[in-house]
Write a structure and sequence with these properties.
Order of helices and strands: EEEH
CATH superfamily: Cyclophilin-like
Helix content: under 10%
Largest sheet: 3 strands, antiparallel
Number of strands: 3
Strand order of the largest sheet: 2-1-3
Number of domains: 1
Strand content: 5-15%
Structural class: mainly beta
Radius of gyration: 14 Å
Length: about 90
């Protein structure tokens, strides 16, 4: 999204790297990943930012330390049980 950068704590849509391939998959940036921004020439596709973590980033950091398998899937289940839309 124009004007929003993939900075630590932002929530962005995942895609395959091709236009119009975003779906229901998203990620939370654990660090600044500005190379994923819509206007960065280093990336062929953008990962649009649509939200941000407003509290509990310490929990997100803990989730980020969970070991993953070869397919990058967490070895122990990780669930988001609640999210809120703030206006």
């Amino acid at each position: 999204v124009k004007g929003r950068s993939n900075r630590r704590g932002t929530i962005a849509m995942a895609n395959t790297g091709h236009p119009n391939t975003g779906g229901s998959q998203f990620f939370i940036n654990l660090v600044d990943n500005t190379y994923l921004d819509w206007d960065d020439p280093r990336t062929p596709s953008a990962h649009p930012v649509f939200g941000e973590v407003v509290e509990g980033m310490d929990i997100i950091d803990t989730i980020g330390k969970v070991k993953t398998n070869a397919a990058d899937k967490p070895k122990i289940p990780v669930r988001i049980e609640k999210a809120e839309v703030l206006e």
